[in-house]
Amino acid sequence: MIEIDGSYGEGGGQILRTSIALSAVTGQDVHIANIRANRPKPGLAPSHITSIEAVARICDAEGDNLFAGSKDVVFRPRQLTGGDFEFDVGTAGSISMIIQSCLLPAVLSKARIMLTVKGGTDVRWSPPIDFMRLIHLQMLAKFGPVCHLDIESRGFYPEGGGAVELEVSPVSRLAPISLDDRGKVEGITGIAFAQNLPEHVVTRMKHSALKRLIGQPDVRIDSQLSKGPSTGAGIVLAAECSGTVLAASALGERGVKAETLGEGCADDLLETMRSGATVDENMLDQIIPYMALAGPGCVVLAEEMTGHAETNLWVTERFLGKRFSVSKIGALVELRTI
């Protein structure tokens, strides 16, 4: 049984999600102790329990101590299976976090998987659902799996009400990827969205981002206005390069102008583009388990090794052994599988 200290490194839910996903893929039982021990509300939150239960359905696993506040979990996987699954995170719990938990076992399952997940599509401390659609799944396709995500409805804090469908066509093994050069910027796509808010909110986010992106090739930002049980707004941008895809996002907050969101999102994207990195900060930690399973020859360039990335690397190597070398390449950090 693999032993994981849930308080290691950044000590948050990412350790839990990665551990459960790798347990499902490798077939190794895992014991996770000290879960979120140093957080203001230690132990499992309801969204963490949903993540564990979701992965358990995909690999027919058994789990011990799955209750709110639990700091000690045992997960015993069986065989990965295909099929249709539906999960409800409750109110505005993060849909993206559930998808992140399920994706690794789903792409290596025995048959097609269809996930329907309800909860929050765009919430704080979580990648917006359009990040998953525009960047995460596009990067994953470089390893071989084909995934298709439909946003049925959006959900914001606190009411939620979002719903997403994700179809995963698995592969028998992941192909190595080499992202050692960002390449030429071929275009920038994105979406500015708002729910239960005036149309001018979307227009102002979009136009302020477009002004910042003057001079960039083929910039296309879609607008989306919707009605639903929850209220919110945001913007996600993706730079499509010949060697990779980079992203930035901003989520609306009370008292923050729409122009500030659009400008800030565009500025963040431009900064990442100028750095020469081939993965952005949000994608770096997520790509690590896929690189490890794909084997030697994978390489990515990042602006820095974030706390989340260092923690995910540690967890991944607890399951798979030494798989990575980390070195400085000029101002960037190179992460390579060995």
State the main characteristics.
single chain; 338 residues; alpha/beta; Dihydrodipicolinate Reductase, domain 2; four-stranded mixed beta sheet; globular
Describe the 3D structure:
This protein has 338 residues and is α/β, with parallel strands linked by helices. Among the domains are: 1-79; 181-275, Dihydrodipicolinate Reductase, domain 2. 34% of the residues lie in helices and 29% in strands. It contains 8 helices and 16 strands. The strands form 4 sheets. The protein has a 4-stranded mixed beta sheet, covered by helices on one side. The protein has a 4-stranded mixed beta sheet with strand order 5-6-8-7, with helices on one face. Strand 3 (62-64) and strand 4 (73-76) form a beta hairpin. The longest helix has 18 residues, at 258-275. The relative contact order is 0.12. The mean pLDDT is 97.
Low-confidence stretches: none
Write the CATH homologous superfamily of the domain at 181-275. Answer: RNA 3'-terminal phosphate cyclase, insert domain
CATH top level class name of the domain at 181-275 = Alpha Beta
Strand order of the largest sheet: 1-2-4-3
- H/E element sequence: EHEHEEEHEHEEEEHEEEHHEHEE
Number of strands: 16
Determine the structural class based on helices, strands and strand pairing.
alpha/beta
- Major beta-sheet overview: 4 strands, mixed
Describe the global form.
globular
Task: Work out the helix count.
Answer: 8
Helix content: 25-40%
